[in-house]
Design goal:
Blueprint (H helix, E strand, L loop, with lengths): L1 H30 L3 E2 L2 E5 L5 E2 L5 E4 L4 E9 L4 H11 L6 E6 L2 E6 L2 E9 L3 E9 L2
Antiparallel strand pairs: 1-2, 3-5, 4-5, 5-9, 6-7, 7-8, 8-9
Length: about 130
């Protein structure tokens, strides 16, 4: 009887330890990421850089509009789409539409568009706007 209880305790310990390790990896990954200016919870995909001079941002307490551009020489839009399709749902965004050169997300009354503007070198436009 003690052996069965001990095995259950060991399994429970291993599951708890695994869950804690996965949580730690998630926190470390997000906390070390760079984020888009004016979009404090939208990470920049590794290998991409933000074009700071091309940003547009305005808004108030009720609505906002932010436009940012990311560029990368050694990546594809497919990789960008995969990164954001995996990452953004963890931040509360819901993927509403995926096309060849665009992703569309929604969250809390806002819409986020991620669109390929140029293939080589890759240029991606990210637009956030309130739905009202």
């Amino acid at each position: 009887m003690k052996t069965i209880t001990m095995k259950k305790n060991i399994r429970h310990f291993i599951k708890t330890l695994s869950a804690a390790f996965c949580f730690w990896l998630t926190v470390v990954g997000v906390s070390s990421a760079e984020f888009i200016d004016e979009l404090e919870d939208l990470p920049i995909m590794p290998g991409m850089t933000q074009s700071v001079n091309d940003n547009i941002s305005f808004g108030n307490d009720e609505s906002r509009f932010v436009e940012a551009y990311l560029s990368g020489k050694k990546t594809t839009f497919s990789a960008v789409a995969s990164f954001y399709a995996e990452t953004l749902p963890q931040l509360g965004w819901h993927l509403t539409l995926r096309k060849n050169n665009a992703l569309y997300f929604e969250r809390d009354g806002e819409r986020l568009d991620i669109i390929r503007e140029k293939k080589q070198p890759l240029l991606v436009r990210i637009t956030l706007k309130s739905k009202n």
